[in-house]
Amino acid sequence: MPDRLPPLSALRAFEAAARLGHFGKAGDELHVTHSAISRQVRVLEEAIGVALFERRNRRVFLTNAGKRLLDATRPAFRQITEIVAELRAGLPDPLVVSCEPTLTQRWLIPRLPAFETRHPDIVIHVLAAGGPVSLEQSRIDCAIRRSDFVIAPDIYAETILEERVGPVCAPDLAARHPGAALFDLPRIHSATRIDAWDRWAAEARCSLPAVPSRTFEHFYLSLEAATAGLGVVISPEPFVIDAIRSRRLVAPFGFRPNGFRYVFLSRTPVAQDPRKMMLLSWLIDEAKNYVHAPDLKLPDEPASNSAKHKAPS
User: Three-state DSSP class for 305?
Assistant: First the structure.
């Protein structure tokens, strides 16, 4: 059985120190401390069983054994570096996409395998972020955002879908509280959209009773709370469409537009980059798969005796 090689990290530290003739300079090159290089060299010397450096008056000099090892490691690491560079050069540059966090988690990621199957030559890297984005100063290629901020006029922007929202909850809650009685349940809020219920009620022209409420820091936590049966939450349709199709959530009153959109943002027109064109076209197609589908509603039933409000028209 062949002898085991010493740790690669120790060989790398030795090669840099021997080539540069200085532990400190080796540490700078490898982004570690002088003492870390010294420790790695000692590990290597112990593993081999011979001294590789002579240490005199805070200076180090290669021993004969050290010179022989440098002759072997220097071309080996150079060749490895060159091969890795060639391999990286042969890979397509990834398209870096920044997307709203909950939209990323609940809608985009579950659908990305279909995009990769259709376009195996396009590598997508997704970063989860929301709000205004500086495409000129960031390392992203394009972004998917909710249109709740002013988009600079020099930014290419195209609508993927209009946002539609509605109350959603666990199926058993909706079954036990049909029709407007659903509004007697605890109301779930997200700190990022604290006015969602008020906006929905105003647009639906319905009054809501005073009930206990629960607030969660992130929207996806609000959705998890609704799925667990803790109450009812106002949700955008794409965030819950998969959960509705699998009957983990229901939308008793369907969804209605709220004036916002999800938009595709780019520094330059997508026509200048085929990858962006293909991604945008695919996103729009995916959005059409459910935007024009009929709303999923439970049958209307009389409200509970305690309810002094009506279901939305």
Answer: coil
Tokens representing 84 are 């890795």
Q: pLDDT for 148-168, tens place per residue?
A: 999 988 899 999 999 999 999
Helix, strand or coil for residue 308?
Answer: coil
The 8-class DSSP code of residue 141 comes to S
Stated pTM of the model:
0.66
Distance of alpha carbon 179 from alpha carbon 135, whole angstroms: 45
Checking DSSP bridges between strand 156-168 and strand 256-266, what pairing results, if any? antiparallel
238-242: list long-range contacts, CB under 8 Å, 24+ apart: 238/103, 238/106, 238/107, 238/161, 238/262, 238/287, 238/290, 239/102, 239/103, 239/106, 239/107, 240/106, 240/168, 241/107, 241/290, 242/106, 242/107, 242/110
Residue 297 CA, distance from chain mean position: 31
The pLDDT tens digits of the residues spanning 194-218 come to 999 999 999 888 889 999 999 999 9
